[in-house]
Structure formats: structure tokens, C-alpha cells
Design goal:
The chain is 40% helix and 14% strand. By secondary structure, it is of the alpha/beta class. The radius of gyration is 25 Å and the shape is globular.
Length: 319
């Protein structure tokens, strides 16, 4: 063991000041919220210490004053041109709109067992609302809209903008283009199905004014779903989808861009759309219909938003 103040022979480098720099940087990493735009600050501190020890330089007094100020504020925000993706937020005041996709008049897709997508969306959205409130997000509101498709889209955007909300989360269940559908009979009725694709997918729009925040939340959500053993729907990145093909922003977790979707591009807050799974796939429909699966998804949503509000939660778990 080296005593305090002892140096490496012939190096001229004091070990303990450098250790203090490294330890302080590691403690700050755990105790402070980590912004995406500032994630590299720790490596910069460590590299700076190493370079300083190897190549000492004379620093002008004015530059020394600037360096000291920077050392006192290692997490200082950059200029507005590189605005951080997310800051800490208070769950009790963070306003979340959980949007029930489609309406009773415009039901969306029809499942392999002839149940409307709207029914699935409503049940899952209600469970997500319950979970978020149980996790401390008291300002979570369920948005249930009436009317035909396009008119209802504009109504839900207006409702979210008028709150105003901090996050718009739209809940849906997936189907496939008609060319992939096959016929079968269920319950004495003719039905259609496609077992070719399955999985969740998460969408954001580059045209949303809070795109960076939307993407940050979407990636946290997709990561949580994958971590719970779910797989994402890979087909949206494939040419076989035709006009339904979308750019894949994160090939590890399944985040796509969907720039023309009204609820993503016209909301003035961060907006994310979740396709929870395929109800046109006969096996996956059964999973989507189970309370256990809804619990998995809702807990993933809550964990993702908690981590967005406080990045320490994602590192350390519940505090």
C-alpha cells in the first residue's frame, strides 16, 4: 500500500490527487442524472487527468481561471444549440396522456378472432394508467376519443396540447397489410389471420418539436420491453412491407420513425406510439388477451418513464 503523498519513483506524478479525480468523477456519475448530451464528460475528465500527467503545459492565468470554473461545474449545460435530451422531472407533476388508439366508431384492425383493436387498446391503456399512477405519476390521464378516424386524431392532439402534457403515449395493437392475410374459421365465423409476423414496435416522428426527448423515451421503453423477454417486430424495416416500411432507428430494441403520423408530428410535447403486439397473429393474440401480458407491458412503460425522470433509477433500481 502506498501512503498518502508517496509518489512513483522517478515519475514525478502524485498518485492520490489523480485517484481523487477518478473517485470524484465516478461518484458524480452515480449521484447525478446523466444527460445524453453530457454522457461523455466522465471520459473527458479521466483523459484530461492522464494527458496532464504525461505532458505538463504552462497555462495562462486567464485559462487557469476558466479551467477552475469548469472543474467546479463538470455537468454544466452546453449552449442551447445542444440542448440536453432530458432533465430530471418530478413524477408527481409529470403530465402523461395515455391515448387509447382508435375509437368505438373507428375500431382499427380486427384480430384473428374477430375482436376490434380498440378493445385491446382500451384494456391495455387502462392498465398502463393504473400502473403509472401506482408508481407516483399522479397526473396521468387516460384519453378516450370519439368519432371517425381523422377527426378523432385531430381531437386527441388538441386535447394533449391544451393540457399541456409533458408526454403523449399512444397505445395500439398491430396487424399486417392485406396481402399477408389468410382465411380461417373461428367460432363458426370466417376470420382472417397472419402468423408470419409478431412482436412490439415503438414509433416516433422526426417532425415532432421534441424529437430528441421522444426518441429518448422510446428507446428506454423498447429497452424495458426487450428486457422483459419480448421481441420487436422486425418487418417494418423490410422492403416486403411496401408503403408500410419505416426507417429503423435502433436495431437492438425496435424503435422506428413514422414521420407522417398526426399524433406524433402535431403534438407539441414528446410523443411515442407503442404497437404492443400483433393481434392478427393467432398465438400472439392469445398473449395480448392475458392480464399477465398487460402487466408485463405496463410495468415496462412505468419503468421506462421513471428512468427518464431520474436516470439513477435505471442504474440503481428503486431508491
Amino acid at each position: 500500500m502506498l501512503s498518502s503523498g508517496r509518489k512513483f519513483a522517478g515519475s514525478g506524478f502524485d498518485v492520490w490527487p489523480r485517484c481523487r479525480i477518478i473517485i470524484a468523477a465516478m461518484v458524480a456519475l452515480v449521484l447525478l442524472p446523466i444527460e445524453v448530451g453530457e454522457a461523455g464528460w466522465l471520459s473527458d475528465v479521466l483523459k484530461g487527468a492522464s494527458k496532464q500527467s504525461q505532458q505538463p503545459k504552462r497555462v495562462a492565468p486567464a485559462k487557469r481561471r476558466v479551467a477552475k470554473a469548469a472543474a467546479r461545474k463538470p455537468m454544466a449545460l452546453r449552449s442551447s444549440a445542444s440542448k440536453p435530451v432530458a432533465a430530471t422531472c418530478n413524477p408527481a407533476k409529470f403530465r402523461i396522456v395515455v391515448d387509447v388508439g382508435h375509437t368505438a366508431e373507428s375500431e382499427g384492425a380486427i384480430s384473428a378472432r374477430n375482436v376490434s383493436e380498440f378493445v385491446y387498446n382500451l384494456r391495455l391503456a387502462q392498465r398502463i394508467e393504473e400502473q403509472l399512477k401506482a408508481e407516483g405519476f399522479a397526473e396521468t390521464k387516460l384519453l378516450l376519443t370519439e368519432g371517425k378516424a381523422r377527426a378523432s386524431l385531430n381531437r386527441r392532439v388538441a386535447a394533449a396540447n391544451n393540457l399541456p402534457a409533458d408526454l403523449f403515449l399512444s397505445i395500439h395493437h398491430d396487424s399486417v397489410p392485406n396481402k399477408f392475410l389468410e382465411d380461417w374459421e373461428f367460432g363458426g365465423r370466417k376470420s382472417r389471420f397472419s402468423d408470419r409476423f409478431n412482436g412490439y414496435s415503438v414509433f416516433v416522428s422526426n417532425n415532432n418539436p421534441e424529437f430528441k426527448t421522444s426518441l429518448s423515451i422510446a428507446e428506454l421503453l423498447a429497452k424495458e420491453l426487450k428486457g422483459r423477454g419480448l421481441r420487436y417486430a422486425e418487418q417494418y424495416s423490410q422492403p416486403v412491407m411496401g408503403r408500410y416500411q419505416h426507417p429503423l432507428l435502433n436495431k437492438e430494441t425496435g424503435v422506428y420513425s413514422y414521420d407522417k403520423l398526426i399524433v406524433l408530428k402535431k403534438t407539441r410535447m414528446a410523443a411515442v406510439l407503442l404497437e404492443a403486439g400483433s393481434i392478427i397473429n393467432r398465438d400472439e393474440e392469445l398473449r395480448m388477451d392475458s392480464p399477465e401480458h398487460r402487466n408485463i407491458i405496463s410495468s415496462g412503460v412505468a419503468a421506462a418513464i421513471k428512468e427518464f425522470c431520474d436516470r439513477r433509477w435505471g442504474i440503481l433500481g428503486p431508491l
